[in-house]
Amino acid sequence: LVGTGGSLLAWVSVAMWLANMPVHFEFSIWQPAFLFLQSPALIADGISWAYSFSIAALCLAIIVTSVVRVNFPSPFNWSGILILTSLGILAVVAGNPLTLVLIWAGIDLVELTNQLRSVEHPKLRERVVIAFASRVGGTILLLWADMVGAANGQILDFHTGSPQAGLYLLLAASLRLGVLPLHLPYPGESAIRRGFGTWLRMISTASSLILLARIPAGSIAPSITPYLSLLVAFAAIYGSWMWLRSSDELSGRPYLLIGISALSVAAALRANPVGAAAWGCALVLSGGALFLSSEPNRWMIRSLWIAAFGFSSLPLSLTATGWNTNNGSFILTGLPFVVAHALLLAGFIRHIQKPGASRVGYEDQPIWARNIYPFGIGVLLITTIGLGIVGWEGSLQIGGWIAALFASLLTFSLVWATPRFRILNPVRAHWLIPSDSWLDRAYQLLWNSYRQLGRLSNVLTNILEGESGIMWTLLFLALFASYVAQQGP
C-alpha cells in the first residue's frame, strides 16, 4: 500500500505541473567557481512533462501489476523501482549537461550492478561490461559537448542550447541507445524479465532519449545529415526486423528499444524535437503496457489495441508528430523509417494477439488481485490517450498523416503475411544463450582484435621492462644515433 500510494501520488502530482509551466530551477553555484562554470539545474517544460508523466505512470503500473507475479510481495524491488523513478524524472527534467551526467552515472551503476548479479554466463557478463562501456562513452561525449560550448564562451544548457554542440548531443544519445554505431546496449537477459527488468530498461532508454529533444534546431550541418540518416535507417530496419521475428515480446525487447530509438533519432535529425519526444513516450507507455501484460485477461488483451494506436502515428495519437519535418527531403530519406515503423507495429500487433504465457494461474489468483491487475495496465493506456489530446506540444496534432497511413497499410499487410511466409515467422529466443547473429559476430571480431592488440602490448611491455630492457634501450639509442649521424648537420 505504501508503494502503490506513493507512486499514485507521484503520478497525480506530475499531472498538476500543468498548472505552472514552464519552470526553471537552479541550485547555488558549486565551489570552486573556476572549476564549475554551472550548477545543477532543472527545467519543467512540455517535453519534460510528457516524459515525467509517462515515467510516473509506468512506475504505478509496475507496482500495481506485481500482485500477479511469482515473487509477490517484493518490497526490495519496489524500493528500487521508486528510487529509479526519482532518478528517471530528474534525468528528463535536467536543465544542463552537468545534471544529466550525474543522473546518468547513478542509473548506469544501478544497471551494471543488477546485470552482474543476475547474469552468470561468461560471454553475457562480458557483454554487460561492454554495454556499460558504451553508455560511459555517451556520457563522455556529453561532457565533451559541454567543453566545446565553454571553449566558445558559451555555457551549455538545455533551455537555450548551443549550436556548436548539436552533433555531440546527437552522438552521445545515439551511443547510449545503441543506434550510432549499431550495437545491442542491452545484453541477453533471462533472470531480469518483467517488472523490475522492464523498469530498468525503460528508465535507461528514456533518460537518453530526452537528450534528442534538447538538440538546438539547425545545429547539425545539412551536409552530413543524409549520411547520418542512412546509418540510423540501417539501425531502424535491423531492430524492427529482429523485433518482428522475435519469439516473444521479452526476448525481442532490446530490438524494440533500438527500433523506436532510431525513429526518435531520425526525428531529431529532421529538427523535430516534439516528434523525438513522442516516440520516446510511446516506448515507455505502449511498450510498458505490452511487457507488463502477461496474464490471460481477454478484455485487457483487447484494450492493448489502444497502446498500438498510440504507437501508430495516426492523427490525434501520441506519436502523431513523429513524421513532422522542417526540410523537404523526407520523401527520400524517410521511406526506410516508415518501413521500419510498419515492421515494429506489425510485431507489436502480433505480440498483442499472442500474449506471453503466465507462470502463475491467473484464475487461481484472489479476486482482488484479478481486479487490481488490469487497473495497472489501464493507467498506461489512459496516459497514452491523455498525452495525445492534452498537456503539451504533441497533443491534438494531425501530423504527417500520409506517412502514418502508408505505415498502417503496410502494417496490416505484414500481419496478414506473417503466418503465410516462413521468413516472417519468429526465431528462437535470444536471451537463452548469447546471441550469434551476424552483428554479434562482427563486434566479436573487433573485440578479439582488441584483445590481440592488448596481448601484443603486454608482450612488448614485458620485454622492455624485463631484465633485457636495458639492452633494448641501448640498442634503440644506438640505432637512433646512427640515423641522426647519417642525416648530417
Record keyword descriptors for this entry.
489 residues; mainly alpha; two-stranded antiparallel sheet; 17 helices; 63% helix; globular
* Average residue-wise pLDDT: 82
Low-pLDDT sequence parts: 356-360, 428-435
Shape: globular
The separation of the N and C termini measures 86 Å
**SSE string, helices as H and strands as E:** HEEHHHHHHHHHHHHHHHH
Structure commentary:
The protein starts with a helix and ends with a helix. 46% of the residues are buried. About 3% of the residues have low confidence. It has 489 residues and is mostly helical. The chain has 17 helices and two strands.
Element layout with pairings:
Elements: H1 2-15, E1 23-26, E2 41-44, H2 46-65, H3 75-92, H4 97-118, H5 122-151, H6 166-177, H7 196-209, H8 225-244, H9 253-269, H10 273-292, H11 298-310, H12 330-333, H13 335-353, H14 367-389, H15 401-417, H16 438-465, H17 469-487
Antiparallel strand pairs: 1-2
